[in-house]
Amino acid sequence: MKKIILAIAVLGLMTACTKSTSKTETVENADGSTTTTTVTETTSGIVDSSDVNKTKNDINSKIDKATGEIDSKADAAKQKIDETAKKTKQELNEAGKDIKDAAAKGAGKIEEGAKKLKEDLNR
After folding, report:
1. What sign for the dihedral angle of Cα 55, 61, 66, 67?
2. Mean residue pLDDT across the chain
3. Backbone angles phi, psi at 47, to 5 degrees
4. Residues 6+ apart with CB under 8 A from 47
5. Strand pairing partners for 42?
6. pLDDT tens readout for residues 25-78
């Protein structure tokens, strides 16, 4: 990511540097008058703007591709987490039912034992 930002900054600086050349021509007409023409050429001294735009588009497409990959992996991780949470919830519900059943059986045995003890004490 740092390389991409650095590349954009360098390209921005390269295109900011421009070079201007002015040419002035004076032509004497047949009737003795003169005509002055000035031509100004502006060029970037370092990089052609089409190259910069191509590079910028390449960088943007790579960023879009990376973003898409990150999003798809995040979605896959979320699905796995959701599945695990659902499975854990089911297992905890089953364990709760098992504990409840065991507690009920234990309570029943305690009641039976208490009855037998009471009967033995009454004899």
Report:
1. positive
2. 83
3. -130, 145
4. 11, 14, 15
5. 20
6. 888 777 878 888 887 776 665 666 777 788 889 999 999 999 999 999 999 999
Instruction: Give the gyration radius of the chain's Cα atoms.
Output: 43
pTM over 0.70: no
The H or E element spanning position 82 is helix 49-122
Q: Are 44 and 18 in contact (CB under 8 A)?
A: yes
Whether the CB-CB separation of 41 and 24 falls below 8 Å is answered with no
3-state secondary structure 8-37: HHHHHHHHHCEEEEEEEEEEECCCCCEEEE
Cα 1 to Cα 8, 59, 60, 113, distances in angstroms? 11, 10, 12, 74
Q: How far is residue 10's CA from residue 59's CA, in Å, rounded to a whole number?
A: 13
For residue 101, CA distances in Å to 88, 90, 94, 105, 106 come to 20, 17, 11, 6, 9
**46, 97 Cβ separation under 8 angstroms:** no
User: β-strands 34-44, 18-28: how paired?
Assistant: antiparallel
Q: Which residue in 14, 8, 15, 6 sits closest to 60, CA to CA?
A: 8
